[in-house]
């Protein structure tokens, strides 16, 4: 499939292409621009990643992923559920069968699928699989996709400097070479991977963590409740009991460079760390306010940043929540680089600066001029358009909501727009306080025809400290002439008993279609009078909330019912039907 367009010929393609997005009908579409902001590859994808060093980019289309080149041609057709970044010329793909390895040409190199394959490091990739006795073991593949080290380990790590730590059995770890030969064995219940010659370990199953050298000699006695690998002569450790956060930074003798009083610590490179104090004392899951520190214990800034990224080319992205900008290695605001309102990250991408702020991407040039940003106006027709509005009263409450322009009936327009704000969860939220949960909301144009506009409104509410949040989804079916917002009953004849008809159709789909095998037994009792739904030109879609009839991972179980199957109960003379027919 060739989806290339440009102002000139193929040889005018820039080597640097950047993923960009636009809100359209239907939904957000992605493509690629050159450094001047000119579109080089059409915005037709559902998802688009950065081009990698091998000249390929992962793109999503119709729920599947493939690889394209700079010409916009598919090197690998979109047939996979996911494709990883390339490492050492190899990428991991996931399909119906499981994980496989491909080369840059898209050729599958593994002879079978695995339940897990990691990235290639030192010419080896970790894989995992269930054996005939249902035991799950790990081994290693070479770059040709061959099992150079068979699945014999209970746990295993990636190779570093041609060595990796693996577990043979309980209380038996070993350092192996690339062929699986044990170079050193460790008789402990836990041993971590090598970090600058030292390995975290536990002497007893319920004991604490310390460090040994590669020969197994104890260098730092166990005294930590968690211990990370050493980087640049420093390691992050935790002293808190009962899953609390009391992080500190130690040297290779076990001396604290930063005392164990912090909610979080991150290595940033360039002998710098981000040290975080809890936003809410006693509740580490609310997150941290970070300061920039040096690895010698010097604190360079106040604890005012929500995030600090790793240093690259002498600068690091930092955000206060209200502003996002680059800081230098001394913690000062970097001169000559953009300062952007909002919370997010800035990254140096070739000749441009990519700003991912409040879940929207903008590109700037070196002078701070905008090269590209996602559109805030979505044209529906010559008359109608949808305007994207932003509501962010608190750092943990962000909503993008739709407002319709072009309706002649101003009273109907005001009523519709107020309802859209309400459905989008635009409501009073106190600023300057710590909320108990975070909420993000957005929308997309799902369908438009004649007088009918269908808008999907979604959100995600995450109570801090919980395993996961709850998604929110609702559809507004709007008549652009009179402002009516339709409900499911409006589609059917009054005496049609549509609830029973639709319930029976869905029951049959659950029984006969394997894609609904996840539905909880005996959980489906039929639909309700006001069952959530949406329509397009040919189909009625009925959906259920998470957990209602299936597991959380199933999301919103959705059932497709073609109009052709239910024409005898549809009110074809009704306002709803006539709005798009």
What does this structure look like?
With 581 residues, this protein is mostly beta strands. Among the domains are: 83 residues, no CATH class; 103 residues, Lipocalin (Beta Barrel), CATH 2.40.128.630; 199 residues, Heat Shock Protein 90. The protein contains 3 helices and 46 strands. The strands form 12 sheets. Strands 38-39-40-41-42-43 form a 6-stranded mixed beta sheet, covered by helices on one side. Strands 4-5-6-7 form a 4-stranded antiparallel beta sheet, with no helix packed on it. A 4-stranded antiparallel beta sheet has the order 11-12-13-14, with no helix packed on it.
Q: For the residues shown, what is the average pLDDT? A: 95
How many DSSP-defined strands? 46
| CATH topology tier name of one domain | Heat Shock Protein 90
Instruction: Kindly provide the name of the CATH class of one domain.
Output: Alpha Beta
Instruction: Outline the low-pLDDT stretches.
Output: 1-14
What's the name of the CATH homologous superfamily of one domain? Answer: Fervidobacterium nodosum Rt17-B1 like
Can you tell me the CATH architecture of one domain? 2-Layer Sandwich
What is the gyration radius calculated from CA atoms?
A: 28 Å
The number of helices is 3
Portion of residues in beta strands equals 35-45%
Spatial separation of the terminal alpha carbons? 33 Å
Bulk shape: globular
Please list the strands of the largest sheet in the order they lie side by side. 38-39-40-41-42-43
Please identify the structural class as seen in this structure.
mainly beta
Helix content: under 10%
Largest sheet: 6 strands, mixed
């Amino acid at each position: 499939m060739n989806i290339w367009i440009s102002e000139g010929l193929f040889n005018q393609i820039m080597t640097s292409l950047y993923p960009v997005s636009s809100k359209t009908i239907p939904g957000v579409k992605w493509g690629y621009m050159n450094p001047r902001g000119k579109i080089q590859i059409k915005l037709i994808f559902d998802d688009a990643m950065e081009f990698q060093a091998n000249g390929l980019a992962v793109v999503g289309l119709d729920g599947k992923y493939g690889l394209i080149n700079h010409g916009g041609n598919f090197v690998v057709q979109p047939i996979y559920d996911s494709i990883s970044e390339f490492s050492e010329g190899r990428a991991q793909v996931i399909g119906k069968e499981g994980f496989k390895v491909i080369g840059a040409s898209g050729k599958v190199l593994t002879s079978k699928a695995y339940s897990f394959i990691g990235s290639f490091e030192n010419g080896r990739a970790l894989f995992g699989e269930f054996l005939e006795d249902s035991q799950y073991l790990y081994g290693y593949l070479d770059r040709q996709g061959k099992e150079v080290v068979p699945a014999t380990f209970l746990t295993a790590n990636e190779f570093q400097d041609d060595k990796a730590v693996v577990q043979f059995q309980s209380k038996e770890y070993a350092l192996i070479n690339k062929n699986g030969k044990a170079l050193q064995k460790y008789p402990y219940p836990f041993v971590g991977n090598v970090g600058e010659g030292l390995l975290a370990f536990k002497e007893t199953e319920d004991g604490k963590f310390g460090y040994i050298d590669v020969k197994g000699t104890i260098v730092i006695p166990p005294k930590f409740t968690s211990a990370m690998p050493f980087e640049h002569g420093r390691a992050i450790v935790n002293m808190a009991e009962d899953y609390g956060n009391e992080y500190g930074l130690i040297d290779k003798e076990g001396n604290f460079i930063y005392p164990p009083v912090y909610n979080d610590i991150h290595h940033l490179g360039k002998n710098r760390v981000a040290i975080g104090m809890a936003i809410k004392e006693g509740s580490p899951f609310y997150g941290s306010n970070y300061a920039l520190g040096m690895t010698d214990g010097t604190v360079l800034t106040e604890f005012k940043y929500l995030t600090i990224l790793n240093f690259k080319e002498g600068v690091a992205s930092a955000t206060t929540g209200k502003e996002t900008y680059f800081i230098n290695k001394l913690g000062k605001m970097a001169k000559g680089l953009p300062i952007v309102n909002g919370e997010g990250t800035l990254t140096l991408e070739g000749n441009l600066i990519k700003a991912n702020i409040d879940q929207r991407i903008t590109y700037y040039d070196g002078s701070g001029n905008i090269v590209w940003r996602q559109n805030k106006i979505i044209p529906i027709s010559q008359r109608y358009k949808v305007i994207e509005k932003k509501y962010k009263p608190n750092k943990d409450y962000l909503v993008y909501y739709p407002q319709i322009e072009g309706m002649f009936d101003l009273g109907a327009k005001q009523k519709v727009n107020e309802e859209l704000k309400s459905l989008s969860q635009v409501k009073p939220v106190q600023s300057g306080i710590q909320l108990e949960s975070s909420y993000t909301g957005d929308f997309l144009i799902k369908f438009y025809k004649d007088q009918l506009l269908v808008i999907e409104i979604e959100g995600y509410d995450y109570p801090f400290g919980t395993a996961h949040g709850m998604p929110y989804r609702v559809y507004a079916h709007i008549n652009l002439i009179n402002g009516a917002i339709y409900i499911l009953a409006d589609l059917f004849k009054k005496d049609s008993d549509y609830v029973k008809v639709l319930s029976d159709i869905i029951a049959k789909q659950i029984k006969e279609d394997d894609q609904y095998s996840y539905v909880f037994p005996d959980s489906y009792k039929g639909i309700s009078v006001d069952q959530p739904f949406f329509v397009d030109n040919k189909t009625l879609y009925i959906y259920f909330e998470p957990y209602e009839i299936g597991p959380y991972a199933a999301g919103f179980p959705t059932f497709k019912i073609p109009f052709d199957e239910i024409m005898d109960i549809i009110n074809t003379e009704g306002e709803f039907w006539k709005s798009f027919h």
